[in-house]
């Protein structure tokens, strides 16, 4: 398997699509990247869960305002937790965190309050990136640099730095993992359980997955159904897929939360004749991968640790520093995180980042 | 069982619209054109499924699957049918299912095992129904507003309890209930519960004074009151009944998905209302049919099943679903108006 991972596309292919990838390695996931590309049972120095920071020694005090959506999903909850825990780690950081809201108007109000409070830096995960662009612009004009987390604003003028996940890469890596697993198999059949279809990110994930599978002519995607990120829908759609496809070799499920339901459907149907790959990185998925007694063999990360990295970036911004490990005097303007594949060999390392 | 039913004048003193009476003959109503047309729609769907995916669709496992998937929303729809028949509406069913399923799967509740989860799910459902009922019957609130408020607060409370997390159930005995080994003569336990709820619902609506009072209140509440029916108490009971159904449905959902999540029961209110309406229950009240509602649920579930088996994507599914609702209602109108 080690070969399979080193064969993964060069980072440059990401660069063309979404700015700078480089930062990702340095800021939060140098270890993630190495861990995945080698996939070796390693003994590198990373303390599990404690991502390397730009510089741990206290500097100029920074007040960071944080505004996110309502944490009604395990992943979003983990975003808040990561931000809070990271901020607590630094004695020079004060975190002003707002009550999360999915309502655009409410979130605009919260961010304006933070602007009026004159925080030094803003970290914003918008409920809707496009709709909150204006308030991002407003903050920037008021001299408060904005770190835009994951859901991107419409205009690059609305943020100083964007950091987020790579949905296309997630699909790409899931497809490549499955492709390598099924390499010797002729007429291999693959099934996809997608997330909410009216989201752009679902289309990007599917696109990446399809592109990866194109590299393996022996594999055919025979079915795709979209659930909506809930356990309930995962169970329902998976049950139908299992009935529709009496035989297939691999399944990629976009989201570990709906994966709980999907695994339940697999259990109920009494099927174990295929390999399943998840998405996002939930604790329950990590545990299932570690136990290795079911169909779930791996999951592709969409790391909520990006919130911790956003705090790091905001702190560096506030202190006028660059990012440790990079030569520049400033932080990058765009950071796309890597979607590492977590399987049995490296799951222990990621276990502390798993969200519930 | 199907001796001519006299109008429910004896208990209510008021006649529902006379031409609607056949709808109440229920499960064996071979004369009911509405039920027949629904069966026709279902037959066409079965034909489509059988032609497009013969091996997968016409399969015992698929029948078990469709019925299982129909169970949760089916139980909710039975309760909804009563409420709509009485001229009311319950927009909070999905939220109550979410709250019940979440409350019943907290770590603390799970310590009490199977019985604790079942008890909590049902109790929370009934409790929410009670609040709805009191607000509407004695607080004088419009059902639409009262249940809308319940929708918002029950969802909020569910979110507060879970903190956005998925609560995974570890009680083995409960999970086993959803597995193949638990099937009784090939019938999944969930489907048995659905069947029992359906039969009880049918009996209550068609064979008891409670059912007749429900119809009377929906037909003309003022006339019902003048005829001596305690309309307010009747309304209280009806929302209580809907809450009870939501509690049972929440329990089924926990068994089915092996977890509790605050996103559970998403848009159940719309699915249940749609199933009841295409089943032949009048949205304005005064006429209700459990048979029709259950057929409505089965039609929706079968459509979803056929689409999934044919690997059609959700955009196509949604468009077709809307078209089929319109078609089913139009066909029904036509056949019903020319008996």
TrEMBL record, chain B:
Pfam family of the protein (one): BPD_transp_2
Recorded GO CC terms: plasma membrane
Keywords, sorted A to Z: Cell membrane, Membrane, Transmembrane, Transmembrane helix
Main location: membrane
Localization (cell): Cell membrane
UniProt xrefs under InterPro entries: ABC_transp_permease
Family annotation (CDD domains): TM_PBP1_transp_AraH_like
Membrane topology according to the record: Multi-pass membrane protein
Entry's transmembrane regions: 33-51, 63-84, 142-162, 182-205, 236-256, 290-309
Protein name (Swiss-Prot/TrEMBL): ABC transporter permease
Organism (species): Streptomyces doudnae
Organism classification: Bacteria, Bacillati, Actinomycetota, Actinomycetes, Kitasatosporales
